[in-house]
């Protein structure tokens, strides 16, 4: 049998709201276990004497209680539960220097002979207490459900949560498991990738910027007509190359007209490139007269006279020619007399067979 009528917490704040418990007249001799607090913190009343004082209808009572640190234990007696009704009581503590009390508590005492509790005047209060117990735990925390329940009446809106969660997909390992039926599967994707080359057109020969694939045969055939780099290297023979310079000599009657005449040449096999630079003194040249320079590095062996247009730094234009002799001759291009200034330079570039 449970020895306790109730286990409650009473604060030393006398203005706090009374705590309500329920007992029957047949509960005489059972205990009320009271935890003492002061402003919500555990209060140690060791050394104090405790008396439960109260009033039952018109009867006053005082029942001694035991103290163990912050726990006061009251054993109910006939004076407390002698008649049905409401009993108001509190714990009075005396520690030798002062006397103080807890907040009050109410005992709703029910008759031993009333078998139908619903007819009691205190039944509505009991229902109120029960509704509070249903809504709150001992610590005052809001109750929550441990499992989803669409019919939950707990303060947490479990019914709302259930509806939301039911619309979510369960964890799955495939798209179909999430209800997605219009996406490519891994097998279908692999199949498409495997057929990708087969679906692309091929070029039969190389084409610039073609979007198509090129067959290996076409590439091979295209490479066959390309020159072999190794073979090209054998075509170059450094023994056939000659680079050099030469000084040209003015014709004896024109020495006073020419300050200097030089050339750079490059001979490749039987072809020569001669770049001539002539620096003139201040002199004049008739439209039909020619400047003749001897000692070109090579004679022109061709039957064709080679010509080039030379331009002076002052804009004069002259026709230069190299015949079978080793001479270079040049005349005014427009066959009009031309007056050179001192150090005016004329350049020619001639290519011919030797």
In a few lines, what is going on in this structure?
The chain is α+β, with helices and mostly antiparallel strands. It has helices at residues 78-81, 123-135, 158-166, 186-194, 196-199, 216-224, 229-235, and strands at 4-11, 19-24, 31-38, 41-42, 49-56, 59-68, 71-75, 85-94, 99-101, 105-110, 202-203, 213-214, 241-247, 249-250, 258-268, 271-280, 283-285, 291-294, 306-312, 317-322, 328-332, 338-340, 345-353. The chain is built from 7 helices and 23 strands.
Folded structure, characterized:
This protein has 354 residues and is an alpha+beta fold. Among the domains are: 4-132, Sandwich (Immunoglobulin-like), CATH 2.60.40; 242-353, Immunoglobulin-like. Helices cover 16% and strands 39% of the residues. The protein has seven helices and 23 strands. The strands form four sheets. Strands 1, 2, 3, 4, 5, 6, 7, 8, 9 and 10 form a ten-stranded mixed sheet that branches. A nine-stranded antiparallel sheet has the order 13-15-16-23-19-20-21-18-14, with no helix packed on it. The radius of gyration is 63 Å and the shape is rod-shaped. The relative contact order is 0.08. The mean pLDDT is 84.
Secondary structure elements and their pairing?
Layout: E1 4-11, E2 19-24, E3 31-38, E4 41-42, E5 49-56, E6 59-68, E7 71-75, H1 78-81, E8 85-94, E9 99-101, E10 105-110, H2 123-135, H3 158-166, H4 186-194, H5 196-199, E11 202-203, E12 213-214, H6 216-224, H7 229-235, E13 241-247, E14 249-250, E15 258-268, E16 271-280, E17 283-285, E18 291-294, E19 306-312, E20 317-322, E21 328-332, E22 338-340, E23 345-353
């Amino acid at each position: 049998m449970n020895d306790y009528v109730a286990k409650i917490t009473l604060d030393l704040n006398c203005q706090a709201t009374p705590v309500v418990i329920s007992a029957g007249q047949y509960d005489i001799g059972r205990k009320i276990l009271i935890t003492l607090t002061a402003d919500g913190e555990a209060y140690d009343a060791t050394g104090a004497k405790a008396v439960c004082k109260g009033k039952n209808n018109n009867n006053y009572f005082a029942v001694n209680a035991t103290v163990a640190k912050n726990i006061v234990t009251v054993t109910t007696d006939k004076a407390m539960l002698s008649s049905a009704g409401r009993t108001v009581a509190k714990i009075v503590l005396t520690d030798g220097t002062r006397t103080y009390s807890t907040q009050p508590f109410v005992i709703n005492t029910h008759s031993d002979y009333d078998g139908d509790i619903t007819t009691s005047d205190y039944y509505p209060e009991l229902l109120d207490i029960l509704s509070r117990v249903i809504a709150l735990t001992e610590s005052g925390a809001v109750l929550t459900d441990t499992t989803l329940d669409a019919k939950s009446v707990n303060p947490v809106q479990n019914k709302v949560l259930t509806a939301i969660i039911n619309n979510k997909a369960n964890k799955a390992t495939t798209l179909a498991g999430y209800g997605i039926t219009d996406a490519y599967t891994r097998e279908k994707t692999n199949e498409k990738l495997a057929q990708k080359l087969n679906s692309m057109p091929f070029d039969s020969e190389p084409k610039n910027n073609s979007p198509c694939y090129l067959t290996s045969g076409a590439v091979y055939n295209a490479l066959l007509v390309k020159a072999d780099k190794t073979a090209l290297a054998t075509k170059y023979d450094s023994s056939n190359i000659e680079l050099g310079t030469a000084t040209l000599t003015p014709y004896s009657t024109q020495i006073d007209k020419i300050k200097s005449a030089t050339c750079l040449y490059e001979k490749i096999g039987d072809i020569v490139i001669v770049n001539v630079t002539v620096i003139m003194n201040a002199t004049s040249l008739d439209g039909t007269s020619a400047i003749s320079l001897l000692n070109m590095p090579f004679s022109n062996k061709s039957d064709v006279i080679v010509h080039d247009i030379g331009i002076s730094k002052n804009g004069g234009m002259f026709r230069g020619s190299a015949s079978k002799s080793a001479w270079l001759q040049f005349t005014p291009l427009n066959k009009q007399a031309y007056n050179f200034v001192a150090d005016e330079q004329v350049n020619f570039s001639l290519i011919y067979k030797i």
